[in-house]
Specification:
Radius of gyration: 30 Å
Largest sheet: none
Number of helices: 7
CATH topology of the largest domain: Rna Polymerase Sigma Factor, Chain: A
Helix content: over 70%
Number of strands: 0
Structural class: mainly alpha
Distance between the termini: 80 Å
Shape: elongated
Strand content: under 5%
Length: 165
């Protein structure tokens, strides 16, 4: 068993810098990078089945560090998503039905006042009928860029209309 320990100590001395550098590049966190490298060696120390060969040891160690870093990054992304959803849940306010009806009326009125009329048509096709820019462009016989510009102009007019109310 002491030969295994000595073997791992030698590998640690030879490859620590490379492993730490890789972890730092992926995680941008010094402490977490050190933890990852130490975890890889701790797992090797406790695992009696993992046999390291001199030629493949560096590749194995770097791959182990990379995989652990990817797991940490995946965990961070999940945590961020949960936090965002939690914040959205806290942010959700219940709008009284009468106020909601007033906002819908103001929005409907704003849509009916859109100029030129093609802007109103683009808004209705996009939001009411759920058509894509390409589908609207084909239906109206214009380019997708024109559809985008009409929609942008219409949304700008709607924002101004809703601010006034």
């Amino acid at each position: 068993m002491t030969t295994r320990k000595q073997e791992l100590e030698t590998l640690f001395r030879q490859h620590y810098r490379q492993m730490y550098r890789l972890a730092t590049l992926l995680l941008h966190d010094d402490a977490e990078s050190k933890d990852i490298v130490h975890d890889v060696f701790a797992q090797l120390l406790t695992s009696s089945t993992t046999e390291l060969h001199e030629k493949t040891a560096a590749a194995f160690l770097l791959t182990s560090v990379r995989n652990r870093c990817l797991n940490v990054i995946r965990g961070r992304k999940i945590q961020e998503r949960v936090q965002r959803l939690y914040l959205l849940d806290l942010d959700t306010t219940i709008i009284p039905p009468d106020l909601f009806c007033e906002e819908l009326k103001a929005l409907s009125e704003g849509i009916s006042l859109l100029t030129p009329p093609v802007c109103r048509e683009v808004v209705e096709l996009h939001f009411r009928d759920n058509l894509t820019f390409r589908e609207i462009a084909v239906r109206l016989g214009v380019s997708e860029t024109t559809v985008y510009k009409h929609l942008r102009r219409a949304l700008q007019q709607l924002r101004e209309h809703l601010k006034r109310d």
